[in-house]
Specification:
Length: about 1500
């Protein structure tokens, strides 16, 4: 028989049970019967007990296994009730005290032996069974005993694990225990937290199950956190608000009430207690889960939790810290590891920190401040990692290292910096943290500081309070900070800054922006800061500078805001005094320049000035400027206002930062490009004054910064960073002047290094050999430069200049051209005096005396050595230039074109680049002249510089005006030296190509084609230059434009030592400047200050001014105490009509009185000026014109004698005179045409007259119609009577009138013309009409200027009678005269010839008769002198002076003051009309008759 499986009955019973359910539902009974039969047949091997368990009671009844199904069901219910609901065990201790007593004894026994949880569990089971103890109550007692013996974790946990039936039962029991302590004033025991944490840690219960039993609920925790933050903010507001005393008392009462309410201690936060217990045993997983359900940093804000978490972090980082972070020599405190094997594993490498440690630290947040030791450990681990990160360049670990770096940055942001804020002024931690931060790039650091300052303080209630307290304390300190208590206040600032530097510095900077007088005490008080604080200060400064809410311009839009200027000054002072990293600040300036914003260049300027001691100022004294042309040592000692030797360390720091971050060249290039960007891109709607200021700031900073690089960078560093000149200009689009400025030190370095190489290669000590080697070195270095500069300009430029000359000009400096011996001597003498003072001072200790003397002596030796070295260098350079000069300028181009290109491409761009360059340009021109450079016309160069300064001055900025003025001053110094002494002139100018004039042979020179400008003619030329300067200055002063006036005043102040030298020009300038002072006093105070300053200095210079005849004179010397003006010759008369006529009208009456006492000095001699004029369009014009004067003088002498005879013949009637004039006209026409042709070739310049001629053309025609414009021939008699009056008046008014604006405004010109027309119509007095004509600047002047002087008073009277007879005829013919346009033009031309004729005869008669030149000297006024008796002269002078006194009350006429002028002239004409009532009639009558005879 086969054997069945053991479980076969059970399987069959399950099958039958299934079939039972299926068949019971069937309607067919037959199948049910079959099922019953099947089961019945199987009863023999399926036990009944199994079937009774599985089958339905009805089925069992049908099988006969039970009697009744109903009874069977009732029996089951009863059994179950008895089993589950009838209590058969004891729950209360009193019910079965013996059993529970034995249980407690069993659990409380000594567990040190071999007693295990399994043995105890068996005993417990026996006790439960014996005494019917309730198992749940037994579990509760086990927990109670575990709570009291919490050190026996291992035993009780294994016991509970074995005993426990269901985790929920355990949670309910624990929850019941926790609930017991949730009443007010109840405190949950730590032991309960511990066993709950232990059970959680060993997974005996679930966190979700126990968490619901803990109080308070999460909603209450969140509300409490929000309430804490709002309370903190309210406290912060109270701290910064001004609270009245009554309000303060009310607040105190409220706070007391709150405190009383808090006396009922709320129940413990059981969730935090459990969290702490979890952290203590090392269960980070469950602790993290609890913390995640609370607000950020809420849990760690409780000190116990923070310390527990810190302890856990200590345990995890200890092995790594001991390996990598522990400083050498330190032992470190012993950390006992947890016995818990489930605690986080300690980190052995930096990678292990990512596992748990970083997250634990982040949950700590700002509350790491509770454990300074752990703070230091984390910082040191960060330092160790950064060293490894910076040194390990393997690509396979790069990603891991980057991840770790980001983790450390997050820790610094979220934990380290906020924790530092909560530490109480812990300077050690600050320095420790700087050890880590300094390894980060400044970009990372500044981002951390930004987060710290702007976001961290809002994240936690404690930090909100700390911020408010810091601000309050900062206010308290800053209110009391002065220069006197810097030390005490500095210590308080230091304490406050150790923890919260961002808040403190933010407030301090806001105060400095308002009160710049705080800068000095604040800078001094910062000496107690830590390194980290200095770095934070740099960030705070940059953030303040970049504040988008602040405007960098003042409200008037003309100046930079004072807050920006204050911050810039602070930057310079702070970065110089303290070791703060500059990279961020310099990068900020660079970024601003990239964005096209140049305001912040002010910062760079201040930083370089303070740190390197390099000042850029146009207010340099001449001694400083001279010292700046020497070597570096001389510059340091005598070139700057400050002592540069105190900046050695700071300048080294600045240099290192620029090189390390590669900012040197980018800053230079950006500044060079931004100069034009200021004008064309950045200016926009900005005020012109501000644009000029920004341009100057940009330019000055470039010069300053470039000077710093040149003096501080080594040769290799400089050459490595600065590209070649063609790349700078063409690729980087650097302006040429800036490109050469940057390249110049490189050329000098290269030449010297090449020279040293050549010297070493061939040893030769002879000076000649050294010079040749130097020239060879120059050729090697400069030849590529010569080739490179060709691409900078169009090809046609090089037709006039050679690239070699261009490169030489731009590559040299003042150091190469001259040795400032006096500056060296001055500094050496200072040191000697210093040594003597040290020796004589008894208060200085001996050792200090010795040191100071040694320092001064060493400095003295350095200066002397440097002077010697520079002297040798200059000699070599001059020799090199001597060899090069013949190839500088091409002979094929005209001198004029050469000078034009030289001025345009060399002189003007460089003379306004810097003060040294201004001096250099002037000296270079002088050097080129001294070298006798072929094809270089020195005269033309000087003439072009002095003759057209209006446009140059108008286009300058303020600082450029200073430099341009200095350039003009140096040029004038040279000219003045030549002008002062004939010997100097002949030594330095005669036989020099620069003063060469070339003429065609005219018979008198024997065919010699070349000649030199003689000394006297040179003096005329210099006078002309002075006059041109005066004219330009007056024009600028009269424009009313701010820029013109400011710039010309600056230029005039600079050239004051050399100009004005002529008294009348000085007086004219003084007049105009005085007028500016009056006009601008209440309008533009800066112009008023400039004008007042110049006016005062000009008055001081008056003692050095000389009358014009002493400044230059020609042939005729003065024969009396009153100096006479000279005339070059008849050929030049009328050449300067415009300038002289303008001189005659605007001079103040005071000046006229002064002039009278000085002998009626003439302002500008027409003939002299004309002869001395140098044309700007032809290189030889100046020289040809002066030469031509001599030819004309000789040629016309014979003509004069003939005219004299004709004049002496009796011919008092007008008919006779008319015939005489016609004969003279025929004789002179041929000579006149020849002279005109010759003058056309010589092109004597008439630029001044021609400018006015075009504007005044219409007024000329009207005047001609009114009275034929010019006084006719019969006016000689009138002139003979009135000569001295008109002469004196004309002389004294000459200068001021001549200096009217050469381009008068349209309105004033028209009003003057209308007014003059009216005067001509109403007053036909000859002298008056001629004076009006002069004022209108007509090219043709009145004939009264040139008529011959008659010796007889009788002849004058007879001519007056003749004029009276013909007055009526002249009046009648006036209307007819207006219609005859053609005849009138012809008469004008004939009349001009008569004028020339008369002036020649006048001169000849003066020479023959030996007249007193002081009485009869020619004037540029319209009238000619008559030889009157002394008595008549006195009478007329008295009349003239009385008239002048009456007129002196009237204001000076300006270019736009037509009304004032008309009143003035009207009163003058009324006075004249009374005396000269018949003069006009006579003139008209004679004029008409003479026209008829012609």
């Amino acid at each position: 028989m086969m054997e069945l499986r053991d479980d076969m009955p059970s399987i069959l019973a399950d099958v039958f049970s299934t079939l039972d359910l299926e068949t019971a539902a069937l309607e067919e009974k037959i199948k049910r019967d079959h099922y019953t039969q099947l089961v019945g047949s199987c009863l023999f091997f399926v036990p009944e007990a199994i079937l009774k368990e599985r089958l339905d009671p009805e089925t069992l009844e049908s099988l006969g296994l039970i009697k009744q199904a109903h009874q069977f069901n009732q029996k089951i219910v009863k059994i179950k009730t008895k089993l589950f609901y009838k209590q058969q065990k004891f729950n209360l201790l009193r019910e079965e005290n013996e059993g529970y007593a034995k249980l407690i004894t069993e659990l409380g026994q000594d567990l040190s032996g071999n007693i295990t949880s399994h043995v105890v569990l068996e005993s417990i089971k026996s006790l439960i069974g014996c005494f019917n103890l309730d198992p749940n109550r037994v579990l509760d007692i086990i927990l109670e005993v575990y709570e009291s013996r919490s050190d026996q974790d291992e035993f009780f946990l294994s016991l509970i694990k074995c005993y426990m039936c269901e985790p929920l039962t355990l949670c309910h029991i624990l929850g019941f225990k926790f609930k017991f302590y949730q009443e007010p004033n109840e405190e949950t025991p730590k032991s309960l937290y511990h066993i709950a944490a232990a059970l959680l840690h060993h997974n005996l219960i679930e966190l979700e199950d126990i968490y619901v039993h803990l109080m308070p609920v999460d909603v209450i925790i969140i509300e409490e956190h929000k309430r804490d933050i709002s309370e903190a903010k309210q406290i912060a507001r109270k701290l910064v608000m001004v609270v009245l005393p009554s309000e303060k008392s009310e607040d105190k009462d409220k706070e007391k009430e709150k405190e009383e309410e808090k006396n009922d201690k709320p129940p413990d936060n059981q969730k935090l207690g459990l969290l702490e217990a979890l952290l203590r045993i090392g269960d980070w997983h469950h602790a993290q889960s609890i913390m995640d359900q609370m607000p950020s940093f809420y849990a760690s804000s409780h000190k116990a939790i923070a310390l527990a978490l810190c302890q856990l972090v200590h345990l995890t980082v200890d092995p790594l810290y001991r390996r990598a972070g522990l400083p050498k020599g330190a032992r470190g405190c012993v950390i006992h590891p947890l016995r818990n094997k489930r605690a986080p594993r300690p980190a052995e490498s930096f990678e292990d920190l990512r596992r748990d440690t970083f997250s634990m630290i982040c949950y700590l947040g700002p509350h790491l401040s509770h454990d300074a030791i752990l703070f230091a450990k984390i910082v040191r681990l960060g330092k160790a990692f950064m060293k490894e990160y910076l040194s390990d360049g393997r690509s396979d670990v790069k990603d891991k290292m980057e991840t770790l770096l980001s983790c450390f940055l997050s820790i610094a942001d979220q934990v380290l910096l906020p924790s530092l804020s909560l530490m109480e002024c812990n300077a050690c931690m600050s320095e420790e943290l700087w050890g880590l931060f300094k390894l980060f790039p400044y970009q990372h650091r500044y981002r951390l500081y930004g987060q710290w300052k702007n976001e961290t303080y809002t994240s936690h209630p404690l930090l909100v309070k700390v911020k408010a307290q810091t601000v309050e304390r900062a206010k308290y300190i800053m209110k009391r900070l002065t220069k006197e208590n810097v030390k005490q206040s500095g210590r308080q600032i230091g304490k406050l800054s150790h923890s919260n530097p961002t808040i403190l510095f933010d407030y301090m900077l806001s105060q400095i922006q308002w009160y710049d007088n705080l800068i000095v005490p604040v800078v001094d008080s910062l000496k107690y800061l830590t390194s980290l604080n200095y770095d934070v200060l740099a960030y705070c400064i940059i953030e303040a500078l970049a504040n988008p809410e602040k405007e960098k311009m003042k409200h008037d839009d003309t100046t930079i805001s004072s807050w920006l200027q204050s911050l810039a000054s602070l930057c310079g002072a702070v970065f110089r005094k303290y070791p703060i990293e500059l990279a961020g600040l310099l990068q900020y300036v660079t970024n601003q320049l990239k964005a096209g914003k140049s305001f912040d260049l002010l910062i760079l300027k201040e930083v370089v000035q303070k740190m390197a001691g390099i000042e850029i100022t146009d207010e340099m004294t001449s001694e400083q400027l001279e010292a700046m042309t020497g070597g570096e040592q001389l510059k340091a000692e005598g070139g700057y206002f400050g002592q540069i030797r105190n900046t050695k360390k700071s300048s080294q720091r600045l240099k290192d930062v620029l090189l390390d971050h590669e900012l040197a060249l980018p800053l230079c290039l950006l500044m060079a490009q931004q100069r034009n960007g200021v004008v064309f891109l950045e200016s926009g709607e900005k005020h012109l004054k501000l644009v000029g200021h920004l341009y100057d700031q940009c330019h000055d900073t470039l010069v300053q910064f470039g000077g710093f690089l040149a003096s501080n960078l080594s040769t290799e560093d400089y050459i490595k960073r600065v590209p070649s000149i063609d790349i700078l200009c063409n690729q980087f689009h650097t302006p040429h002047d800036a490109a050469f400025f940057l390249s110049r030190p490189m050329y000098a370095h290269q030449i010297l290094s090449k020279y040293d190489e050549l010297k070493k290669a061939e040893k030769g000590n002879r000076q000649q050999q050294k010079v040749h080697k130097y020239v060879a070195a120059c050729e090697l270095v400069m030849t590529p430069v010569h080739e490179a500069v060709v691409s900078l300009h169009p090809a046609r430029v090089w037709d006039d200049l050679r690239p070699q000359f261009y490169a030489t000009f731009w590559s040299l400096t003042m150091y190469d051209l001259a040795v400032p011996h006096s500056a060296y001597e001055r500094e050496v003498n200072k040191l000697k005096v210093q040594i003597k003072a040290i020796e004589e001072n008894p208060e200085i200790p001996l050792n200090k005396k010795k040191k100071e003397k040694e320092r001064c002596t060493a400095l003295q030796e350095k200066l002397q050595e440097e002077e010697k070295k520079q002297l040798e260098h200059v000699q070599r350079v001059l020799h090199r230039l001597k060899l090069e000069k013949d190839n500088w300028l091409l002979a094929k181009s005209t001198k004029n074109e050469t000078i034009t290109k030289f001025l345009q491409l060399c002189l003007f761009p460089r003379c306004i680049f810097s003060s040294i360059d201004a001096v250099y340009c002037a000296r270079f021109v002088e050097l080129v002249h001294q070298q006798k450079t072929p094809n270089f016309c020195t005269l033309l160069c000087y003439d072009r510089v002095f003759s057209a300064i209006i446009y140059t001055v108008a286009s300058c900025t303020e600082n450029e005006s200073h430099r341009y003025g200095r350039f003009l001053c140096c040029m004038l110094e040279t000219v003045t030296r030549w002008h002062s002494d004939r010997a100097i002139y002949e030594k330095e100018c005669v036989n020099y190509p620069g003063f060469l004039t070339i003429f065609r042979a005219t018979g008198f020179d024997g065919g010699n084609k070349a000649d030199q400008l003689d000394y006297e003619n040179f003096r005329h030329v210099v006078h002309k230059w002075h006059y041109m300067l005066t004219k330009a200055s007056v024009h600028c002063l009269e424009t009313g434009d701010y820029t013109h006036i400011r710039n010309i005043l600056i230029v005039l102040t600079k050239i004051l030592p050399c100009y004005p030298k002529v008294l009348n020009l000085g007086q004219a300038l003084e007049c105009r400047v005085h007028k500016i002072c009056l006009e601008e006093k209440d309008k533009r105070p800066d112009l008023y200050a400039l004008a007042m300053g110049y006016s005062g200095r000009l008055k001081g210079q008056k003692v050095h001014m000389v009358p014009e005849n002493e400044f230059h004179h020609k042939e005729q010397p003065a024969r009396s105490a009153t100096p006479a003006n000279q005339q070059n010759g008849p050929g030049s008369t009328g050449k300067l009509a415009t300038s002289t006529s303008k001189t005659e009208d605007g001079m103040s009456e005071d000046d006229r009185v002064k002039d009278k006492s000085q002998g009626t000095t003439k302002p500008v001699n027409k003939a002299n000026s004309a002869a001395a004029k140098v044309t700007t369009s032809n290189g030889n014009g100046a020289l040809n014109s002066t030469k031509a004067v001599k030819e004309r003088d000789d040629k016309e002498k014979s003509g004069k004698e003939k005219k004299e005879k004709k004049e002496k013949t009796p011919g008092s009637t007008p008919e006779t005179k008319a015939e005489t004039r016609r004969e003279k006209q025929r004789d002179e026409r041929a000579g006149k045409e020849e002279r005109v042709a010759r003058e056309g070739k010589e092109k004597t310049p008439k630029a001044d007259r021609e400018k006015v001629k075009a504007e005044e053309k219409s007024s000329k025609d009207d005047k001609a119609k009114a009275g034929n414009g010019e006084p006719m021939e019969p006016s000689r008699e009138r002139d003979a009577i009135k000569e001295s009056k008109s002469k004196e008046k004309g002389d004294r008014s000459a200068v001021a009138g001549s200096l009217k604006s050469p381009v008068p405004r349209l309105e004033s010109a028209e009003s003057e013309r209308d007014h003059k027309r009216r005067k001509l119509d109403s007053h036909s007095s000859p002298s008056h009409s001629s004076s009006v004509k002069d004022n209108s600047n007509e090219p043709k002047e009145s004939t009264s200027k040139h008529h011959a002087n008659y010796n007889s008073v009788t002849r004058s009277k007879s001519r007056e009678r003749e004029m009276e007879k013909k007055d009526s005829d002249n009046t009648q013919g006036r209307s007819k005269e207006k219609k005859e346009e053609k005849d009138r033009k012809e008469r004008k031309r004939d009349h001009l010839l008569n004028e020339l004729e008369a002036s020649q005869e006048s001169k000849r008669r003066k020479d023959e008769n030996g007249m007193n030149s002081s009485k009869n000297s020619k004037s540029t006024s319209p009238s000619c002198d008559s030889p009157l008796s002394a008595e008549k002269e006195k009478i007329k002078r008295s009349k003239s002076s009385s008239k002048e006194k009456a007129e002196s009350v009237k204001p000076e006429r300006t270019s736009s003051g037509g009304k004032k002028e008309s009143r003035h002239d009207k009163e003058k004409s009324e006075k004249k009309e009374k005396r000269d009532s018949s003069g006009g009639k006579e003139e008209k009558k004679h004029h008409k008759s003479s026209d008829k005879h012609r």
